[in-house]
Amino acid sequence: MNQAEAIAKLQTIFDDLFLEPVSLTPALSAKDVPEWDSLMHISLLVAVEKAFAVRFRVGEVEQTRNVGEFADLILKRSQER
User: Fold this and answer.
1) Which residues constitute the domain of residue 43?
2) Crossing angle, helix 38-52 and helix 67-80, to 10 degrees?
3) CA distance from start to end of the chain
4) What pLDDT score does 6 carry?
5) What is the C-alpha separation between 15 and 1, in angstroms, rounded?
6) What is the CATH number of the domain that holds 53?
7) How far, in whole angstroms, is CA 40 from its chain's centroid?
8) CA distance 81 to 39
9) Nearest-CA neighbor of 57 among 49, 67, 69?
10) Do 13 and 47 form a contact (C-beta atoms < 8 A)?
């Protein structure tokens, strides 16, 4: 799986969670999406861990600045399984 494929899979998760449509791009960040608050962030992380069968370490997700970096982190965790 590459970054584009991970983002495509993320898109389905975003489509399920967010009320308003969010078009994912590698540069998109939480500050670009009004609905993406702290509670939505937690729901998103839980859904991503389940969908990708990964677990994130404390603090590492907060270090990602955008969807592209988040997808890269998902890929990194996927390869560690």
Assistant:
1) 3-80
2) 40
3) 14
4) 98
5) 20
6) 1.10.1200.10
7) 11
8) 27
9) 49
10) yes
pLDDT digits (tens, 9 = 90+) for 29-71: 999 999 999 999 999 999 999 999 999 998 999 999 999 999 9
Instruction: State the Cα–Cα distance between residues 10 and 49, nearest whole angstrom.
Output: 11
What tokens were used for 52?
A: 């990708």
- pLDDT per residue as tens digits for the range 2-38: 999 999 999 999 999 999 999 999 999 999 999 999 9
What is the tally of structural domains in the chain? 1
What pLDDT, on the 0 to 100 scale, is given for residue 81? 74
Taken in order 33, 22, 35, 69, is the CA torsion positive or negative? negative
Q: How many CA atoms lie within 13 A of 35 on its CB side?
A: 10
Q: Token match 């540069």: residue?
A: 27
- How far is the C-alpha of 22 from the C-alpha of 24, rounded, in Å? 6
Backbone CA torsion sign across 54, 41, 58, 28: positive
Structure confidence at residue 34 (pLDDT) = 96
